[in-house]
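Report of the visiting student (M.T.), summer placement. My assignment was to run the structure pipeline on a short list of targets and document each run. The first record concerns Aldehyde dehydrogenase domain, aldehyde/histidinol dehydrogenase.
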Amino acid sequence: MLIGFARFALLHIIGWADKIHGLTVQADGPHHVQTLHEPIAVAGQIIPWNFPLLMYSWKVGPALACDNTLVLKTTEQTQLSALYVSKLFHEVIFV
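After the run finished, the structure tokens were exported:
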């Protein structure tokens, strides 16, 4: 059941990845207002021991959808789930 929730969260976030883009907005006066789509920086994320796969999808999905780098810290008890999903991401991206 939790795998289904994590899958739904990732699919929802992945759906927004191509809808985030810069917009030019009309401004009053001689000003030019522009929104740029650029990565901000490195995002540090901490995942608690409860619901590790669901928390992973909530934190990794938005960071990757916005082209940010991610540093992930899991608890000692739940490291394998994050490592396995990261391995799956690597296989999908670099095949």
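The chain has one domain: 2-20+35-93. The first strand starts at residue 24 and ends at 25. I thank the supervising group for their guidance throughout the placement.
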